[in-house]
Amino acid sequence: MSETFGIRTRNIFDPASREPFKLSRSKLELFNECALCFYLDRRLGISRPPMFPFTLNNAVDALMKKEFDIHRAKSSAHPLMEKYGIDAVPFTHEDMEKWRANFVGIQYHHQPTNLIITGAVDDVWTDRKGNLMIVDYKATSTDQAIDMDSEYRRGYKRQVEIYQWIFRRKGFSVSDTAYFVYANGQKDRSAFDGKLEFTVQIFAHKGNDAWVEPTIVKARECLMLEKRPEMNPACTYCSYRKEAARHPIK
User: Which fold has domain 21-245?
Assistant: First the structure.
């Protein structure tokens, strides 16, 4: 069967299969957002409409990686680390590029559920004692102070906590503290002049990954259901589907 928009024939969970099933960090977050959307996606192959690619954000991400890699090669601290009093250097490991690669990332096979949890990190730093610090690069453009407690940025915190959980299960000593390196594009310049200037801030987050494993177990239970779970009333995608179904196309 050929694939059409929103319908997949690959990467679909089969309850009868004994093969491990890969579940990315983003799909675990999808389960947190809405069990029905998660079920439609991973069990039935019906994905949410794709978002537009954040190409400027991706460019900032790529350049930040190159910048920190210069210091990784020298085992030196980036000036931002020194500015924020972070006693660390970029972590050097032979699998760093794999850990960063989309659709590969760092992976851990959770035996109780037979799910392989994956996630692509932006960076990893290490302190003098060998404790790893998960780092995520973010880009935005706002005149407001960046609020790390806003609703959608709480998802960023869950993101790094999943990474902390995976790295710990892989045998690494991981600090509870993760960092967000935030690049904020400035709109108050007199002209564009072919360049966009950023201010860069670092925000610390003390993670707690205690929720991760119970959520993985619940996600597996959801995938095993033969009947669709209930929609999340706060899910805009489900609300759209529900309203659209009331007005069928004739």
Answer: Lambda Exonuclease; Chain A (3.90.320)
